[in-house]
């Protein structure tokens, strides 16, 4: 009996990396499909905009946008908490689709930042555990909307991905890591959604975090490995997507590339450290 228990313990340990790194599938939560096409309600994201203005450091074309977590004042953290509470208190099911999409993206991003602040200082979001065989806070039930508890994974993989089926969502939600697509410098809204999604895709694909030709191989972000199904399910479909947002020079390289592909991702915190 003891030997059997030890065997299963060892096997569980060996299987841990596969469990930790498995990307969630998009599984529609029917409950959140409800919307009101006639709604003219517009959500105010000014608090989130003000937070980004104060604490987001916009990088260059080749660097990640960074957050000055260490410098966030208690009043601004409190305001961020209240902003998230105000979003979760809204009758989301009675909004139109465009307002819903913007709300869910902003809720995901602001909630991620708040989660980092509540565990700061921390080197990586993956240091925040949500239970056994987990690495990261994504399965923690952090909020309650319309009486239902939700996690970050619920928002991304059970609401945003399956409802809108827009692969640019991967460039919109931010996981507080250096390898992630940028946390945008402005909130998403119904009015700016298309422009900001295209910008986010262009920024990432044309950075070394997204697509990087080295002397030996083509190195892509692990996002394109984890969520290949969202980018067409094949190398050909993925390359077509990348070429759509790539610069002419990069698009030309992708179009003719027939070599090896590797994947990489940097989970270090997207933090701007103080210089003093």
UniProtKB/TrEMBL annotation:
Q: Where is the signal peptide?
A: 1-22
Parts forming coiled coils: none
The reply to whether Signal figures as a keyword in the UniProt entry is yes
The chain positions of domain DUF547 read 93-205
Any matching Pfam family: DUF547
InterPro entries membership: DUF547
- Tree of life domain: Bacteria
Which of UniProt's keywords are assigned here? Signal
Task: Identify the PANTHER family for this entry.
Answer: ELECTRON CARRIER/ PROTEIN DISULFIDE OXIDOREDUCTASE, ELECTRON CARRIER_ PROTEIN DISULFIDE OXIDOREDUCTASE
Which named protein is this? DUF547 domain-containing protein
The organism encoding this protein is: Desulfuromusa kysingii
């Amino acid at each position: 009996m003891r030997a059997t228990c030890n065997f299963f313990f060892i096997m569980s340990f060996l299987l841990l990396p596969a469990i930790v790194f498995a990307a969630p599938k998009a599984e529609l939560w029917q409950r959140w499909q409800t919307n009101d096409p006639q709604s003219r309600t517009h959500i105010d994201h000014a608090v989130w905009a003000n937070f980004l203005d104060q604490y987001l450091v916009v990088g260059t074309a080749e660097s990640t946008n960074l957050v000055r977590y260490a410098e966030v004042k208690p009043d601004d953290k409190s305001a961020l908490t209240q902003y998230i509470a105000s979003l979760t208190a809204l009758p989301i099911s009675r909004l139109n689709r465009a307002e819903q999409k913007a709300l869910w993206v902003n809720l995901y991003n602001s909630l991620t930042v708040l989660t980092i602040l509540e565990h700061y200082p921390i080197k990586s979001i993956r240091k925040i555990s949500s239970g056994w065989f987990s690495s990261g806070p994504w399965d923690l039930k952090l909020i309650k909307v319309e009486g239902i508890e939700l996690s970050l994974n619920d928002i991304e993989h059970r609401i945003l991905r399956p409802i809108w089926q827009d692969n640019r969502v991967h460039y919109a939600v931010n996981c507080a890591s250096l390898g992630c697509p940028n946390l945008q410098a402005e909130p998403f809204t119904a009015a700016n959604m298309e422009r900001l999604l295209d910008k986010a895709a262009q920024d990432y694909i044309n950075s070394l975090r997204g697509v990087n030709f080295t002397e030996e191989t083509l190195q892509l972000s692990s996002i394109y490995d984890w969520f290949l199904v969202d980018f067409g399910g094949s190398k050909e479909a993925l390359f077509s997507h990348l070429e759509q947002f790539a610069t002419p020079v990069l698009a030309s390289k992708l179009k003719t590339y027939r070599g090896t592909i590797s994947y990489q991702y940097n989970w270090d915190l997207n933090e701007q450290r103080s210089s003093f």
